[in-house]
Specification:
Order of helices and strands of chain B: HEEEEEHEEEEEEH
CATH class of the largest domain in chain A: Alpha Beta
Strand content of chain A: 5-15%
InterPro entries (chain B): DUF1854
Radius of gyration of chain A: 37 Å
Helix content of chain A: 40-55%
Shape of chain A: extended
Strand content of chain B: 35-45%
CATH superfamily of the largest domain in chain A: P-loop containing nucleotide triphosphate hydrolases
Protein name (chain B): DUF1854 domain-containing protein
Distance between the termini of chain A: 69 Å
Largest interface: A-B, 52 and 47 residues
Largest sheet of chain B: 5 strands, antiparallel
Largest sheet of chain A: 6 strands, mixed
Distance between the termini of chain B: 47 Å
Number of strands of chain A: 20
Structural class of chain B: alpha+beta
Structural class of chain A: alpha+beta
Number of domains of chain B: 2
Strand order of the largest sheet of chain A: 14-17-18-11-19-20
Oligomer: heterodimer
Pfam family, one (chain B): DUF1854
Number of domains of chain A: 4
Shape of chain B: elongated
CATH architecture of the largest domain in chain A: 3-Layer(aba) Sandwich
CATH topology of the largest domain in chain A: Rossmann fold
Number of strands of chain B: 11
């Protein structure tokens, strides 16, 4: 536990409370009327102490995750007189509870009447929840176990800068990890292509080295020696021309080689990046996908990977070669004539100035464009997936307008970027070309003075033009670099997101499950202190069928999501064959738990492939048997393409019942020990339901089944029923026991029967 | 064709509306039948006709567009006691009391001046003057953590879910807007 500030400890000591007496403490950081004032709540075995500050609200507030750049974190020492201490014996307190507000919370203490004890911002919600749970245990005189007292693994902070990791479980300090770190990480992607990269750089260097000889041959050697009749090549024009051709050819050959290898590498790197992001996404928990829009994720996988591919393939190798070219050519130029060389650098300061001023703006505008593209893509994918709704409400026009608006703002953004781009780059071009004109002017003057030969000026100018390419490239690479680093950042963000549900290092592999499920005192909420499940317990013995009944929103689906560990419980435990599911390998859970749910997903592919999804290596016999048991065989045989019928996006459209039967066949083939039926027949008509029911009956034989259903008729076979309401188990027992009790279940059955009768009347 | 059926359609719409109100059965609270008061423990209690609720909470139906209309008065169990059409229907004293409750519930410092936003590694670090003092907080990029909730109102949610509001993006200076834009 973090240590209490000194002044608070002193105050407590005056109250005869010492560190050993303190079970738990927390800071509440806001007042109900909107300022930031600290209030300490200290829970001891016999009392709850509230220490409130009498000070004015603090003028500054640092929320979690923000590292202060300067060391001015220490708050000025507080005089003890400013604090008010109030200790209330626990026996006088009836309850302590949290009131969830929007992005903050209140701690409400009830003695005879409820009162607001303190208010806190969202970051303290976890602590507040623990305070309440500890108080409740104390009040009920329950034994506190070590888990209660042991402070949860707090967000650990970066050892280097002291900043708290902004995200739980992600032990990366964004402050201390810099772009070169991303770059290094990117390089590791290219690591396995070291050979190709080396060859590419080698051929590029050879290409430019051979290219560098040419200006010398064309200038000094051709004009001054061969034509001018001086030096070793005097009069040998043919030889010089041959040499020029030879070097050009060599340069060309190296260039082609490099291009071929490069093309191969480009495809491979893009492939690697995309598959790495895609598989990283598959690894993540359900929660991640529910938070992100699909459109955004798709852009991420595609665009960002392409961006990085450019960087690797073009950026990296050109960077190395161009850097060497710049060094090499500058050296040659300086060697030839340092004064002329300096002349051609005159425009450079202007170039740099423009780059420094304009490029950040260009970068910002292109970010805006990226944002607009994402927005537009989301609209497109929303509308396509929601076509039925759009058409049903006749809102095509409205969707077109919505798209139009987004399209306009994208096109505006695009235009702004392009306009700026097409202004800046020609200006930059012009500036760099100015250097050439200066050389001709001064070089020409020097030739006339007889200080310089014509060939030498020509050589000089040719070299200088060779320099422009690399320099312009370097101009761009700054922009490129940040572009790519952002793309990399986004991709790594997906890769680094720690799946909320992680397998333990020493997880147990359970190959043969019996199917004994014990759920004991499970509490679960997607956010701290917003429990959806409250103290749920149940037991399913091997081979039993348990029915879970309740209104929608009662927490039935959450219960099965917890059993199959799509989410982790907050408190309590779920045991399968007496092993906590957190200690089991994910593979053994997935292998032994099958889910048939209301929303059936059919993948693109043939019906046979869809059935064989769990076990692609199964025999044709298996597939047909499974389909037969699932009552799917007959409708499949009726299809013109039989089991080869392509279904899914763009394929044959299956009806809801047909899809459901496919998914049951899939589950039969999967052959799990534990079967979860989550409203498997809810969306079907009665007739289809009957057929499916038959299929389900054959499916549940010999398996532990947990069935959730609205229609109680489907649960008549259940060995045991659990009735849930508002996240709690309110009744349980067999159908007969529950009917006898005349409680909630009884009421539900009566309503259900009435509804059925109504149905009959309507149908009749 | 459209013209000839125009009238009946209008009539039907009026009818639908009253039907909806009948079906919805929302109880509206007014100054005549309702008295709000603050308990000694600083909580809100309400008396509607003869019915008394010791602690209730005020929920806004439109927390971003108008906090003064369609307030829902609810118990901690989220049972609706009734709705208030507009705070203007109540005395100033009562309206102030309810507004104070709204303030408590929808605590979100309003950003008056963006001092700095620094983006790094998938997070942006904000330093901003707000109605509650200078706040420094961390926002995860993407995932709608800075999103427009109306034409000009920006809602920013930090790593813990704390909320900050920029009431009018257009009132930001160019320099501020440039920094904020990169996080949207």
């Amino acid at each position: 536990m973090k240590i209490l500030p000194n002044e608070i400890s002193t105050l407590l000591q005056k109250e005869q409370v010492f560190d050993k007496d303190i079970l738990f403490w927390m800071v509440c950081d806001r007042t109900p009327d909107g300022g930031f004032v600290d209030t300490y709540l200290i829970l001891c075995r016999d009392r709850l102490i509230t220490i409130g500050s009498g000070r004015e609200p603090s003028k500054e507030k640092i929320y979690k995750g923000y590292a202060m750049p300067r060391k001015k974190k220490s708050v000025e020492p507080v005089q003890s007189g400013e604090w008010t201490v109030e200790a209330v014996p626990l026996e006088r307190i009836e309850s302590v509870s949290i009131v969830n507000l929007v992005a903050s919370g209140l701690i409400v203490v009830k003695e005879t009447e409820e009162r607001i004890a303190a208010a806190f911002t969202n970051g303290h919600m976890g602590k507040a929840a623990r305070l309440v749970s500890l108080f409740t245990k104390l009040k009920k005189s329950e034994e506190l176990n070590s888990q209660d007292l042991d402070d949860e693994q707090e967000h650990t902070s970066c050892p280097k800068c002291g900043m708290i990791y902004p995200e739980e479980g992600r032990q990366i300090c964004p402050k201390c990890m810099k772009k070169h770190a991303i770059f290094a990480r990117l390089l590791s992607f290219a690591g396995k292509y070291k050979g190709s990269m080396f060859l590419i750089v080698l051929f590029m260097l050879l290409n430019s080295a051979t290219g560098l000889v040419i200006p010398y041959l064309q200038g000094t050697v051709l004009f001054d020696q061969a034509l001018g009749g001086k030096g070793s090549f005097a009069g040998q024009i043919g030889l010089v021309i041959l040499l020029i051709i030879a070097f050009r050819t060599l340069s060309l050959v190296f260039g082609v080689w490099f291009g071929v290898i490069n093309a191969r590498l480009a495809a491979n790197v893009a492939f690697d990046l995309k598959s790495s992001v895609f598989s990283a996404m598959q690894r993540l928990s359900l929660n991640f996908f529910q938070k992100k829009q699909t459109g955004q994720l798709m852009t991420r996988v595609n665009n960002d990977a392409t961006e990085l591919q450019f960087f690797f393939v073009d950026g990296m190798s050109y960077f190395i070669v161009n850097a060497m070219n710049i060094v090499g050519i500058t050296a040659i130029l300086l060697y030839m004539d340092w004064k002329l060389t300096l002349l051609c650098f005159i425009p450079l300061p202007f170039v740099f100035l423009i780059v420094k001023k304009v490029f950040p703006r260009l970068w910002r505008l292109s970010w805006r464009r990226h944002r607009k593209v994402s927005a537009m893509n989301s609209i497109i994918s929303d509308t396509i997936r929601g076509t039925r709704v759009v058409k049903a409400f006749g809102k095509e026009q409205k969707e077109m307008e919505r798209f139009h608006r987004s399209n306009v703002s994208f096109s505006d953004a695009e235009q702004t970027v392009n306009k700026l781009g097409s202004t800046v780059f020609p200006v930059l071009n012009f500036l760099t070309q100015t250097g050439g004109i200066l050389i001709w002017a001064f070089g020409g003057w020097m030739v006339m003075q007889g200080e310089f030969s014509f060939g030498k000026v020509l050589t000089f100018v040719n070299y200088m033009y060779l320099l422009y390419g690399p320099i312009q490239f370097m101009n761009n690479i700054v922009n490129w670099w940040s572009h790519c680093m952002t793309a990399a950042q986004r991709i790594f963000e997906i890769q680094d997101t720690v799946p909320e549900i992680a397998e333990k290092a020493d997880a147990v592999e359970l190959s043969a499950m019996k199917g004994d499920i014990k759920v004991s005192n499970v509490v679960f909420g997607y956010e701290p202190n917003k429990p959806i499940m409250k103290n749920v317990s149940m037991h399913a013995k091997p081979g039993q069928m348990i029915g879970v009944v309740g209104h929608s929103g009662a927490g039935k689906s959450t219960l099965v999501n917890l059993i199959s560990r799509l989410y982790d419980v907050s408190e309590g435990e779920i045991l399968i064959d007496d092993i906590n599911i957190k200690d089991l390998t994910t593979a053994s859970l997935r292998k032994n738990i099958g889910i048939v749910s209301q929303d059936v997903y059919v993948f693109s592919g043939s019906i046979a492939e869809n059935i064989a999804y769990a076990d692609p290596d199964c025999t044709v016999d298996d597939i047909i048997n499974a389909a037969k048991i699932a009552n799917a065989h007959d409708f499949i045989e009726k299809l013109p393409d039989g089991y080869d019928t392509i279904v899914g996006t763009g394929g044959h459209n299956l009806s809801g019942g047909e899809k459901q039967r496919l998914s049951i066949a899939r589950a039969i083939l999967h052959n799990p020990k534990i079967l979860i039926l989550d409203e498997a027949t809810a969306s079907l008509d009665t007739e289809t339901e009957l057929q499916i029911q038959e299929a389900l009956d054959s499916l549940i034989k010999g398996r532990t089944t947990i069935a959730i259903a609205h229609r109680l008729s489907t649960l008549r076979n259940a060995d045991y029923l659990v009735v849930m309401e508002h996240g709690k188990v309110v009744e349980d027992g067999t159908h007969d026991q529950l009917m006898e009790r005349e409680g909630i279940y009884h009421g539900l059955v009566k309503k259900h029967d009435e509804a059925l009768k109504m149905n009959e009347v309507i149908i009749a | 064709m459209m013209q000839s059926v125009a009238n009946p359609v209008v009539n039907e719409e009026v009818k639908t509306e009253s039907d909806l109100a009948d079906a919805a059965k929302i109880r509206y609270l007014s100054a005549d039948n309702t008295v709000f008061s603050k308990t000694p423990g600083n909580m809100l209690s309400v008396k509607v006709a003869e019915e008394e609720h010791p602690t209730v909470y005020v929920h806004c139906s439109f927390p971003h567009t108008n906090k003064r209309i369609y307030l829902s008065i609810r118990t901690i169990e989220n049972k609706e006691i009734g709705m208030i059409r507009s705070l203007d229907d109540f005395s100033k004293e009562m309206a102030d009391l309810l507004e104070e409750q709204v303030q408590i519930r929808y605590f979100a410092p309003e950003i008056t001046n963006v001092v700095a936003v620094k983006q790094e590694f998938g997070y942006s670090y904000w330093e901003a003057e707000t109605t509650a003092g200078l706040c420094r907080f961390t926002v995860r990029d993407g995932g709608g953590n800075a999103k427009m909730v109306s034409d000009k109102r920006l809602l920013i949610t930090d790593v813990d879910g704390n909320r900050f509001i920029i009431a009018d993006l257009e009132r930001l200076s160019d320099r501020e807007y440039r920094m904020v834009e990169m996080c949207m």
